[in-house]
């Protein structure tokens, strides 16, 4: 016959299990990252971002600045990101080709 652990044994064990599950199941929080226009700023922001982040592009031109990537001078996206204008008034222009190698797209 199992030993009597008292009235708090089951609730305490349940509480510990619930706490462990909640800590392990915490969703990651996606970041919103402001990106200024210019050479390499978009590629640097893409490289620094985590999957699920949103890149908010300010008004202006975005280029890769001649920086060589494995696919040439394209701007490469290798993770799931949202890339959009920072506001309705912003008019960002990307002058390089975008090469998307992420999934899902």
Question: What are its keywords?
Answer:
alpha/beta, three-stranded parallel beta sheet, 8 strands, 105 residues
Task: Please give a quick description of this structure.
The protein is an alpha/beta fold and 105 residues long.
Describe the structure.
The structure is a single chain. This protein has 2 helices and 8 strands, in the order αββαββββββ. With 105 residues, it is α/β, with parallel strands linked by helices. The strands form 3 sheets. It has a 3-stranded parallel β-sheet with strand order 1-3-6, with helices on one face. The protein starts with 8 loop residues before the first helix and ends in a 5-residue tail after the last strand.
By DSSP, the count of extended strands is 8
Poorly predicted sequence stretches spanning 5 or more consecutive residues: none
- Amino- and carboxy-terminal Cα gap: 58 Å
Helix fraction by DSSP (H/I, runs of at least 4)? 10-25%
Radius of gyration from the alpha-carbon trace, in angstroms: 23 Å
Helix- and strand-based class? alpha/beta
The overall pLDDT, averaged over residues, is: 76
How would a textbook summarize the main sheet? 3 strands, parallel
What is the helix/strand order? HEEHEEEEEE
Number of helices: 2
Strand order of the largest sheet: 1-3-6
Strand content: 25-35%
Q: Any idea what the shape is?
A: globular
